[in-house]
Give the backbone structure.
Amino acid sequence: MVATPDDSSPSRGIVEVLFGGAWGTVCHDESWDLQDAHVVCRQLGYDGAENASYAEVIETEVTWMRNVQCNGSESAILECTHNHVEGDFMLCQFFKVASVICTPPPGKHLGV
């Protein structure tokens, strides 16, 4: 699993998961929240998340997860309750995919 960094910071980006040998996105829907982002960021080695948001993606991508609901104690996003989407990007409303802004540990600047 990885959060793809954007141009402005290596600690922010869209959330992607590896499933069956292919990378795919996570839909941003009404269930995507800060608890989910905390799990993603901790999995990547950050202290937690500052923000759980979305990115609008126009190009066709594979989507693997939607309706993600973490309780905060999980060590990986795949441990969270979710619906597996079988790769259909059209199931993401308005082409919105989950994104995060992670909080680096004090004194460290981690890349993703």
In short: The two ends are 10 Å apart (CA to CA).
